[in-house]
Amino acid sequence: MESEPQELQELKRRLGEIRDLHRAAAVLSWDQQTYMPPGGAAARAEQLATLHRTAHTWFTSDEIGQLLEALRAPAAEWDYDSDEASLVRVTLRDYEKARRIPPALIAELARVSTLAYEAWVKAKATADFALFLPHLEKIVDLNIQIAEALGYQERLYDALLDQYEPEMKTAQVAALFEQLKAELVPIVKNIASQANPDGDAILRRPMDVQKQWDFGLSVLRDMGFDFNRGRQDKSVHPFTTSFSINDVRLTTRLDPNYFPTALFGTIHEGGHGLYEQGLSPTLERTGLDDGASLGIHESQSRLWENLIGRSRAFWTYYFPRLQQAFPEQMGDVELETFYQAINAVKPSFIRVEADEVTYNLHIMLRFELENDMLERRIPLRDLPEAWNAKMEAYLGIVPPNDALGVLQDVHWSGGMLGYFPTYSLGNLYSVQFFEKAKRDINGLLDQIAAGDFSELLKWLRQNIHQHGRKYTPAELVLKVTGKELAATDYIGYIKQKFGELYSL
Ligand code: ZN
Fold this sequence. Notes:
Elements: H1 6-34, H2 41-59, H3 62-77, H4 83-100, H5 103-126, H6 129-150, H7 156-164, H8 170-194, H9 209-223, E1 230-234, E2 240-244, E3 247-252, H10 260-277, H11 294-308, H12 312-325, H13 327-330, H14 335-342, H15 359-374, H16 383-395, H17 421-440, H18 444-449, H19 454-463, H20 473-481, H21 488-502
Parallel strand pairs: 1-3
Antiparallel strand pairs: 2-3
Helix pairs in contact: 1-2, 1-3, 3-4, 5-6, 6-7, 9-10, 10-11, 11-17, 12-14, 15-16, 15-17
The protein binds zinc ion.
The site of zinc ion has 4 residues, from helix 10 and helix 11.
C-alpha cells in the first residue's frame, strides 16, 4: 500500500477511541477487584455499564460499517499478514457478529446475570441448587437466543464457542475431548489406586506471606516480565488485565499455609502478562492489541505454570533458592520429593484445584453438560444428578453436595456458556507450542535448568505474542507448529511425565 486510504485513517481513529473506552473500563474493574472499598460497588457497576454500552454503540454504528465496506475490496489486495489487512479482516468479523445481536438482548443478559450472580453466591454458600435454578433457566434461554441471533451451521454451541475461540467448531472440540477421555480416564483410575494421601504435606508447611510475595516477584523478573510496563497486586481471584501494551496488571493471592497458591498463580498470570507485554506496539489502540483467543491466552499461562513451572529443569535451578528463602520449611526436603509433591495427581471435586492429569476431565464434563442444556436434552432441574454421574464415570468420585459439584464455578451465573472448553484448548495448544519450541531452540531445557528464559521468551514473542489478534487460533497454530491442533502432543506429554512419576 503506497499511502493509507483516508477510510483506513478514519477507521483507525474511531477504533482507537473505542479501545480507549475498553481500556478505561479495564482500569475500573481492576480497581474494583484490588483496592475499591465495598461501598463503591453500586457506582462502579453504573460506570462500567455506561462505558461498555457506549463502546458497543460506537462500534456497531453505521459509520464503522460504511468504512469497513469501503475497505473490504482494497484490503483483499493487501498483504494478508500486514497490520492493515488484518485490521480490516478481523474488524469486519467482529463487526458482523456484534451487529447480529440485538442490543436489548445484551442488556437483558447483563440484567439477568447480575441477579443470577447474587443468587449463585447464596446457592453456593448453602449448597442449594434450587435457589440458582430459575436464574440458570433464564441464562440458558438467553444464550439460545444469542446463538440463534449470531447464527451457526451445525451446532448451536458453535455460535457461543466462537465468542471466546474464533472459528473453533464444537465437532472439533468433541473429537479432541473423545481422544483425551479415552487416554486419561484409565490413567486417572490407575493413579488413584496408588495415590499417597499425604503426597503434598510438605507444601502445607506455614510460610511467611511477605517472603512468598518476594519469591514470586523474583521468578516473574527472571521470566522477563517488565516491571516498568506492569505491576502485581493482590486480589481474591487472581487475574491479568491490561490498560496498554505498556501497562499490564497481574494479581495474585497468598495463602500462609499453602505456598503453591501464590507461586503457581504468579507464574500462571505472569504467562498471561508476558503475552500482553509482547504484543507488537504497532497494534496499540487498534483492537488487535489482545490475545488471539481465550484458549491461546491460556496456552501462554499454562506453558509457564505447568510445562516450565512444574518441570524438573525449572526446579533444578529454583529449588536451592526456595530452600534458601525458606530454610525451616524446605531445608530438609529433597528436590525429588518436592518435584513429586508439586505434581501429585489426585481426583478431586474442585476444578481450579485440579492437577494436570485430571483437569481436562473437569472441563469435558462441563462441555458435555452445556451442550445437553442448550440442545434441551436435559431438564435443568436434573443437572446436579447428571453432574455427579459424570464425576463418578470420569474421576471415580461423587461430590457430597452441590457446592462441591454443579455450583462451584462462577461462569454460568455470569451468563457465559461456551467458555469452559478454552481452558482445555489452552492445555493442548501449550504442549504443541512447547514441543515446537524445544525443536527450534537448541538446549532449551538446559537453559531453563540454568534459570535462563531469554531464548524461550524471544521465541514466544516472535512466533505468538507479537501477532495479537491478527490470526485465528487455527491459523496461528498452523503457522507456528506446521500442523493443526491435535491431542497427540498433549497425550504424549502426560504419558511421559506421569508415566515416570507413577510407573504406569
Ligand atoms: Zn489463565
